[in-house]
Design goal:
The structure holds two protein chains of two kinds.
Chain A: E1 4-10, H1 14-30, E2 35-39, H2 46-49, E3 56-57, E4 75-76, H3 77-91, E5 95-97, E6 101-107, E7 110-115, E8 120-128, E9 149-150, E10 163-167, H4 171-181, E11 185-189, H5 200-211, E12 217-220, E13 224-229, E14 238-244, E15 247-253, E16 255-258, H6 266-271, E17 298-300, H7 310-324, H8 334-340, H9 350-360, H10 362-365, H11 369-378, E18 380-385, H12 388-422, E19 440-443, E20 447-449, E21 458-463, E22 465-469, E23 476-479, E24 483-484, H13 486-491, E25 498-501, E26 505-510, H14 512-521, H15 523-542, H16 552-557, E27 559-563, E28 568-570, E29 578-584, E30 587-593, E31 596-601, E32 608-609, E33 623-626, E34 630-636, H17 637-646, H18 651-670, H19 672-683, E35 692-696, H20 705-713, E36 721-728, E37 731-735, E38 754-756, E39 762-764, H21 773-777, E40 784-786, H22 795-801, H23 817-822, E41 825-827, H24 840-843, E42 850-853, H25 858-863
Parallel strand pairs in A: 1-2, 1-8, 2-5, 8-17, 9-16, 10-11, 10-16, 11-12, 18-19
Antiparallel strand pairs in A: 3-4, 6-7, 7-8, 13-14, 14-15, 18-26, 20-25, 21-24, 21-26, 22-23, 22-25, 27-34, 28-33, 29-32, 29-34, 30-31, 30-33, 35-37, 35-42, 36-37, 38-39, 40-41
Helix pairs in contact in A: 1-3, 1-7, 4-5, 14-15
Chain B: H1 2-9, H2 22-39, H3 41-44, H4 55-78, H5 86-119, H6 124-143, H7 147-158, H8 166-170, E1 177-181, E2 190-194, H9 199-208, H10 217-250, H11 252-276
Antiparallel strand pairs in B: 1-2
Helix pairs in contact in B: 2-4, 4-5, 5-10, 5-11, 6-7, 6-10, 9-10
The chains are: A alpha+beta, B mainly alpha.
């Protein structure tokens, strides 16, 4: 195998195959043999060959079209490999298997590729499409190289009746775990609290398995591997030690399968002369918009370029060959971006705008171009216009763009269906055309968000100015390159203060999901956001009159700690040297009086506690225990004093707050009965509630009108259960949604059907697919799966003629066939977000027993009576 | 009230106070409007989609207008003339409705705090679950005891009565029974005796304890004794809860039918007054 080629593609995975296929098409047109595809393994698509038998391969992301001479549709591993084998033959790809490239030298026009067998070829351009699969990431604990741990699973059916722990939350981990669960007992360990990296289908399947009570399949969320206890003798079980939110847990098992993804082959890349941006083992090469690395003529596509999805990799394969051939074509997602930028006052092309924005925002500047493109695809662009006529014109233009886009999609669909019918294929089943995502218009002076709103998107300013206003402290003006909204993004709390947009301002609004993914993948971005979050938090609490940027050094000194429910933060009698600011969660403060624990306070996110230690009384007079999973910012004496030096005028305010807390504590201490009611509420997890239904039993006459009203205003299904509520003293805590500060149900909703109103109500929309995740994830059992009940006769018909079951949920109702067909859907309290009179349960209570409260109202409730 | 009294006193002193004067018609109209509005609560409380006002507000107005304003207006309208006729019948029905309503008000104010105390931080479901659990415990322990103890425990569980007929529920009567070995004339036979408050079985167990010789039997009997003590308490609370709940609903069974009757009588009253007076 020798010779000289115009294009040498290394790696016959989806990206490489697609590139080689496109190159082969060009060769066939030009009548030359100008390409070669080198693959180290004995066959094409090695990663997919090693998938489990019959594995279903998916074609995410759905919004993207495929652009490649090689066909690819979602299907089984076998079907896809067969199609590709056929396409390799049909397109005439010059595939050389078993040719492992060990070195690449030279640059455009003069590359030398050396193979493991000693042969050499030369090429004008090289496309590196080797992926990252050859290099699995290890567990990083002692014993992770023993036979107890496997990083690859070829056939799950090889094992039967074993206890197996699968570590990882990606697609490979999920698929292995599900495959193994057919014959084994499986525990899957997820470092985070959701499977955010997984593809849709896998996400659904794994959650279904976790929810399936007949399957020996469970998950440990928010757990890290702490150690391994390999088996003492072959055949004996060993154990894996996890660090879970409930403490350390050793799970006995026969084997551990770690699927933590793979990391780029750094050594090889460096030998090829490719520079990597940082020391991180996960660092990917930096590429220009044509996928070209710093070595001219050396292109990188696919997973190694940061794109692990098959369809994207294949599109890149096609496009990169076009670039090499000198055709400056636009990527498939180009029209989507064009619409997003459609109304902006630029005469620039999408790529230029992207480059400009990346330059402008320091945080994004060092992101991979392609990752940034992806971020913009998932974000919204908002444009504030000052002039009313200009605004009107843009609205008109928006309508035109929208209609044109919809017409284009319909035309393309019609064309494709015609081609398919000519080729004798049936038309594709399609969803209705989605609303095109065009630049969102604002007027100068509009609120981007308001104080107290429960939104959590993240905003980046690329042009213009945004003013942040809050009740205490001066206005903060932010200009191009700066970001805001990180407080709600990180803490899950409502917005603090208003954000007002000026004329000619352009914002990128990124959804929480995308930001969380980005922060997980990019430590630099995570750190940048975290630092600004701390600066602004410190500014807000301790130095409102100082600009937040002046607090940078102090922000770097403070630490953030996490506590699981029940963890002690400090104990009564300890000597304290720091105060705490709650970032998320609630802390129960208790003090011992005459041998019993008395609740003396329950500070929530956004409040401080323990400040007395820095204000003259170093001995802790109470114990602090996390009432729910809690994150706190710890501020030590030195930083505290530095803050006060910068802003001496905030001392009285701080003192006033401390006085208020002490007064509350003394009130609670004096009445141990009401203190025990508060302890009960906190024990029931109400510390994380924002809007909980509580019934005062001294007033409740048991008429159940609250439940009936709920059913009557919510399609016949009550979302609250009064009788089953937990009771303590005069308080009944019915089973009803508390609209948690960080809703457990909202994580892992596959269709993203659970939302939060800016006013705080958490609700499920019609796109619910009935997977039952939210029901499983809710620690308070307030979500139920239910068929849509049949229609009932009206009130007067019941009242006068006795027709129908009467008001309220009908326990005997049989779902109609249509309802059964549609399946059960998740239903929960939405706090009657659409009702002008507020929650029906409260409005319909004849005695005023039913009330809705947040933790701030607990003291009042406890003192009733 | 003051307005009603004023209107009443403004009547021509020449004629006896009567529903037929303009003052009488005014007071009668007022009373009729009040009655219709008060009865409308039955509809209003079921209009769950209605966004106007809270039900608490409606209920409060219902109490004040129905308990104070209506009797004044209606009594003055009648001018203290009573007889054996449909008009007085309407008045009597109204009085019945108001009195039953006042009793209802009393139950609503008095019983919820009693229920809270009776509940002792346990919901009905939790209490039933505990009962179920200790019953199983009792059976399990009893199965390791002497045959006669086993029979007694078994029958005590089997023949425990909660609820029952209307009066049993209302007065929280305990009609539990138990089969115990007979004494005296009935020696050697099991007899069915009343087991109110689980007293009979508790006494029986307590008597057996000093009398046991089998190893471990005393301990098991002590255990059973505890279980039946706890059972008695749980059952009593259950009966009391049922009774209180029933009392809070019962008055409505008088209040509502009387209201319907009142409306019928009132219709007759109005029709006769206008057509036959």
């Amino acid at each position: 195998m020798t010779g000289h080629y115009g294009i040498a593609v290394i790696g016959a995975g989806p990206a490489g195959l697609s590139a080689a296929g496109r190159a082969a098409e060009h060769d066939a047109q030009d009548g030359e043999a100008g390409h070669i595809l080198l693959e180290g393994a004995p066959h094409h698509a090695n990663t997919i060959q090693r998938y489990q038998k019959g594995k279903h391969v998916m074609d995410e992301p759905g919004y993207l079209d495929l652009r490649s001479p090689i066909e690819f549709n979602a299907g089984t591993r076998e079907a896809i490999l067969d199609t590709w084998a056929e396409d390799i033959r049909a397109t005439g790809i010059n595939l050389q298997c078993g040719a492992e490239v060990t070195a690449i030298d030279g640059e455009r026009g003069d590359f030398t590729l050396r193979c493991a067998d000693g042969t050499e070829i030369t090429a004008d351009n090289v496309i590196l499409a080797i992926g990252t699969q050859g290099n699995p990431r290890r567990l990083g604990v002692e014993g992770d190289d023993s036979a107890f741990v496997q990083y690859q699973l070829d056939d799950p059916d090889e094992y039967a009746d074993e206890d197996i722990v699968v570590v990882g939350a990606g697609d490979a981990a999920i698929e292995n775990a599900l495959g193994l669960a057919r014959q084994n007992r499986v525990v899957i360990v997820n470092r985070r609290n959701e499977f955010s990296r997984a593809k849709q289908g896998n996400l659904d399947a794994v959650l279904a398995a976790i929810n399936d009570r007949d399957l020996a399949f469970s998950c440990r969320y928010q757990s890290n591997v702490k150690g391994l206890q390999p088996p003492s003798a072959p055949g004996e079980p060993g154990a894996i030690v996890l660090d879970t939110p409930d403490g350390e847990e050793a799970i006995p098992c026969h084997r551990v399968i770690a699927r933590l993804g793979s990391i780029p082959p750094r050594g090889f890349l460096e030998r090829c002369g490719i520079e990597l941006p940082n020391e991180s083992p996960e660092a990917l090469p930096e590429l220009d918009e044509h996928y070209q690395s710093n070595v001219p003529g050396l292109y990188v596509i696919g997973a190694l370029a940061g794109y692990p999805l098959i369809k994207q990799a294949m599109n890149q394969g096609h496009d990169v060959v076009e670039f090499i051939k000198g055709h400056d074509i636009k990527p498939v997602e180009h029209p989507l971006l064009q619409l997003k930028f459609g109304l902006l006052p630029y005469r620039a092309d999408v790529d230029e705008i992207l480059a400009l924005y990346q330059q402008r925002v320091p945080m994004f500047a060092r992101m991979n171009t392609l990752a940034f493109r992806e971020l913009i695809l998932e974000s919204e662009i908002r444009y504030a216009v000052g002039d009313e006529t200009a605004h009107e014109e843009l609205r008109e233009r928006r309508r035109t763009l929208r209609e044109r886009r919809i017409a284009e999609i319909e035309q393309a669909r019609a064309d494709e269906d015609r081609r398919r019918s000519e080729a004798g294929k049936p038309p594709k089943p399609r969803r209705p055309v989605e609303e095109p995502d065009i630049t969102k218009l604002l007027r100068a002076g509009d609120y981007v968000y308001r104080d107290g709103e429960y939104t959590n998107t993240f905003f980046t300013i690329v042009e213009g100015e945004v003013t942040l206003r809050s009740d205490n402290g001066p206005e903060t003006r932010l200009t191009a390159g700066q970001f805001f909204g990180e407080m709600s993004l990180l803490s899950g709390r409502p917005r603090i203060g208003d954000a007002v947009v000026s004329a000619d301002t352009i914002l990128i609004e990124t959804p929480r999901r995308t930001m969380v993914k980005l922060m997980a993948a990019n430590a630099e971005v995570a750190e940048g956001i975290e630092t600004v979050f701390l600066q602004r938090t410190l500014q807000q609490f301790f130095a409102p009159s100082v600009s937040y940027s002046a607090l940078r050094d102090i922000a770097r000194q403070v630490t953030t700690s996490r506590f699981n429910r029940g963890d002690t933060i400090y104990s009564e009698g300890d000597t304290g040297d720091r105060l705490y600011l709650i970032r998320s969660g609630t802390v129960a403060l208790t003090s011992r009086r005459d041998g019993r624990e008395i609740a003396v306070g329950h500070p929530q996110s956004g409040q401080t506690f323990g400040q007395m230690a820095l204000m003259g009384d170093p001995v802790r007079r109470e114990s602090a225990v996390a009432a729910v999973r809690t994150e706190v910012i710890e501020i030590e004496r030195e930083e505290f004093l530095a803050l006060l030096r910068k802003s001496p005028d905030s001392v009285p305010q701080l003192q006033a707050e401390t006085t208020r807390q002490l007064q509350q504590a003394s009130r609670m201490e004096a009445v141990p009965e009401s203190s025990s009611v508060i302890s009960f509420l906190l024990d029931q997890g109400l510390g994380e509630a924002t809007d909980a239904l509580v019934i005062d039993e001294t007033l409740c006459i048991g008429c159940d009108n609250c439940e009936i009203a709920c059913a009557e205003t919510h399609d016949g299904v009550s979302r609250l259960n009064r009788k089953a509520g937990m009771r303590f003293a005069h308080v009944n805590l019915p089973i009803a949604c508390r609209h948690c500060e960080q809703p457990h149900c909202m994580k892992e909703c596959p269709p993203d059907a659970i939302h939060r109103e800016p006013s705080g109500e958490v609700f499920i929309d019609d796109s619910c697919i009935g997977c039952g995740n939210c029901e499983t994830n809710c620690p308070y059992d307030v979500i139920k799966m239910s068929y849509e009940p049949p229609k009932k006769p009206g009130l007067l018909q019941w009242l006068l003629m006795g027709r129908g079951p009467g008001p309220g949920e009908d326990p005997l109702a049989e779902p109609t066939e249509a309802a059964q067909e549609a399946g059960k859907k998740a239903v929960k309290c939405d706090a009657c977000r659409d009702r002008p009179a507020g929650p029906a349960c409260v409005q319909s209570c004849p005695t005023g027993a039913a009330v809705r409260l947040s933790p701030a109202d607990f003291a009042d409730l406890a003192e009733r009576n | 009230m003051a307005a009603s009294a004023g209107i009443y006193l403004s009547q021509d002193p020449a004629l006896p106070p009567n529903g037929g004067s303009w003052q009488g018609y005014t007071l009668g109209g007022l009373g009729l409007a009040l009655i219709l509005w008060l009865a409308w609560l039955g509809i209003r409380k079921r209009q769950y989609r209605n966004n106007r006002g809270t039900l608490e507000g409606w209920a409060s107005a219902h109490v004040y207008l129905g308990g104070i304003a209506l009797p004044v207006a209606a009594t003055l309208h009648g001018g203290f003339q009573f007889g054996l006729n449909v008009h007085t019948l309407a008045y009597a029905l109204m009085a019945g409705v108001i009195l039953s309503g006042l009793y209802g008000l009393y139950t609503y104010l008095r019983f919820p705090p009693l229920l809270v105390r009776n509940r002792g931080d346990q919901s009905m479901d939790e209490r039933l679950a505990e009962l179920d659990r200790i019953d199983k415990e009792a059976l399990e322990t009893a199965s390791r005891c002497d045959e006669s103890v086993h029979t007694a425990v078994h029958s005590a569980l089997d023949r425990t009565a909660v609820g029952g007929g209307f009066r049993d529920q209302l007065f929280a009567r305990d009609r539990s029974r138990v089969l115990l070995p007979g004494t005296g004339k009935r020696e050697g036979r099991n007899v069915l005796v009343a087991n109110r408050g689980q007293r009979a079985v508790v006494d029986y167990l307590a008597q057996r304890i000093p009398d046991t010789s089998k190893h471990g039997e005393a301990e098991r009997l002590r255990e059973l004794l505890y279980v039946f003590g706890r059972r008695a308490e749980l059952l009593q609370r259950l009966r009391r809860e049922i009774s209180l709940q029933l009392r809070m609903k019962l008055w409505l069974a008088i209040h509502v039918p009387l209201t319907v009757a009142l409306l019928a009588a009132l219709t007759v009253h109005v029709v006769t007054v206008f057509f036959y007076w």
